[in-house]
Amino acid sequence: MIDKQELNGFYIPEMTSVVCKSAAEMVRVMTAGARRRAAACTDMNEHSSRSHAVFLVTVEAAHKHTHVIRVGKLNLVDLAGSERQRKTNASADRLREASRINQALSSLGNVISALAENSPHVPYRDSKLTRILQDSLGGNSKTIMIANIGPAQYNYDETVTTLRYAHRAKAIKNKPVRNEDPADAKLREYQAEIERLRAMLAERRGAERRGAERRPRRATKKTQPEPESGQYLVPGGDRCWRSGEERSGAGRSAGRGGRPRRHSRSPRAVSI
């Protein structure tokens, strides 16, 4: 069973992961895996590989200051060669192995053709090999394919098939991006959103401040001075203050009928 993973691309329950701290340790692990690979003798190859081999190298790097963890992986894949039964004279177990090898290679060829033609459906699930190589072929990766061909006339058909295989693979266009820990990526996304909102808020406040500066100021009304002790406001005419003594004198000067006379600013003659 092969499960899809967000970061590593795939997960196989029987797969073994070994932590290596140097390139020498990694080579020892790869050599140990190669010893477990099945091989047999056929009429075309004395040491014919009877299976495909995938060696996955995962590298994690943490930034010294930001502590952002980036993850990269390298798939080293050795595909078993396509075999024609009439040339290998395989039988029994060797024939069944060749049949499975050719079937996986055929599925890989269909995937490469679909990716090269930008087909909406890519048949990754047709074989375990294409499931494992899904991210390497059409995912977030850069892929290098090395095609092995033979110069002999006897291998003409196999050489043409291999070159067509490589030509279709060359047409695949991937756009890889940097991988990082999902938690760090989400944190960086939130930080960018906060900075964007802060910039919007600062721009809004600046616009309000500029609008307030352009707005004309309203004229303030002049306030009347407060009356001093013993003064009152004369009604009518010019607004001015008179002393309390003038008010008492005005109260004594009354006209006919006992009505008080209104003060006037024009001169008057008074006979005693």
UniProtKB/TrEMBL annotation:
Domain of life: Eukaryota
Pfam families listed in its UniProt record: Kinesin
Region (Disordered): 204-272
SMART domains according to UniProt: KISc (SM00129)
GO CC entries: microtubule
Major subcellular site: cytoplasm
Keyword Flavoprotein: no
Segment forming the signal sequence: none
PROSITE patterns in UniProt: KINESIN_MOTOR_1 (PS00411), KINESIN_MOTOR_2 (PS50067)
Family: Belongs to the TRAFAC class myosin-kinesin ATPase superfamily. Kinesin family.
Full protein name: Kinesin-like protein
Source species of the chain: Plutella xylostella (Diamondback moth)
